[in-house]
Amino acid sequence: MTRGPFIIRGERYLSLEAVAECYQVEAAWVRQVYEHGLLGRGEDVGGTIAVAAAMLERVAVIRRLTLLGAADLAFIEVLLDEMG
Prior knowledge:
By secondary structure, this protein is an alpha+beta fold. It has helices spanning 16-22, 27-35, 56-67, 73-83; strands at residues 6-8, 11-15, 43-45, 48-52. The chain has a single domain (6-83), classed as Multidrug-efflux Transporter Regulator, Chain: A, Domain 2. It contains four helices and four strands; from the N terminus they run E-E-H-H-E-E-H-H. The protein has a four-stranded antiparallel sheet with strand order 1-2-4-3. Helix 1 (16-22) crosses helix 2 (27-35). The relative contact order is 0.19. The mean pLDDT is 88.
């Protein structure tokens, strides 16, 4: 499996699996967050999805909100939009 980091158009990207490892969460959870559209546009790199490393802070916020009981990704999306 290709993990990254990758440089795409001058920006650093990480595979969903690498992101999951960074935050010690299941890769399936990161994929669900990605598929809900909360991690921006991904890039297919050798059959794996990679997201911009700039989204790591967003993953941390989503994780904290999830741990605080805001488990619904649609609700988290609204919160993130309001936060800017």
